[in-house]
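Notes to self after the Tuesday call (sharing in case useful).
The group wants a holo model before anyone commits to mutagenesis around the pocket. I volunteered. Ligand is flavin mononucleotide. Logging inputs and output together so the record is complete.
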Amino acid sequence: MDFFEVIKTRRSVRRFKEDPVPDELIEKILEAVKWAPSWSNTQCWEIIVVKDPELKKKIQEAIPEINPAYKGVGQAPVLLVGAAKRGVSGYYQGEMSTDKGDWYMFDMGIALEHAALAAHALGLGTVHIGLFDHKKVAELLDIPEGYEVVEILPIGYPARASKAPKRREISEFTHLNKFGNPWRKEE
Ligand SMILES: Cc1cc2nc3c(=O)[nH]c(=O)nc-3n(C[C@H](O)[C@H](O)[C@H](O)COP(=O)(O)O)c2cc1C
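Result:
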């Protein structure tokens, strides 16, 4: 699949087939995480690959049932859980470099979007899951002090096609030189 097609056709997948995902494909997805950019190349991410069915069930219980991704987490054969080391991304010599605080959410977002795009290019589906009991998942996975669980990314073969939610037009979010001045491409 062409790069732009991968970007455009990736959808959040919330229903999965039971078919297992071979470890070779998981490795390719992890390779895509490995090459993600990060603050000063600090690579604050840790990825827990969860395959144990009982553990997966317990993780699912940490997600509220109103979360549209709840059911899919019970179906997906593999979950990636992203946990970030605090105090490295966005820091220089132990001091925060910007007024934005710790940049771990940003770096983890890029890393796991690399994973989502790689999975899609391999014919697999994923959904970024942010709404769940992060503390409970951290306990279940023995996440050490100093790390924050950020996201759950189930991976599996999509059980059905998902429709693309509407996007804002480029003209609605783009400005030329200064905010409020519409961007127009030169003819
Ligand atoms: C940071 C983040 C957190 C998200 N959390 C959830 C979630 O908890 N549950 C869910 O069903 N989808 C979640 N999503 C998926 C979004 O709802 C989805 O990306 C958006 O509606 C656009 O749809 P698309 O991914 O199919 O293009 C999350 C996405 C992001 C980027």
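Two things stood out.
The radius of gyration is 18 Å.
The chain has one domain: 15-159.
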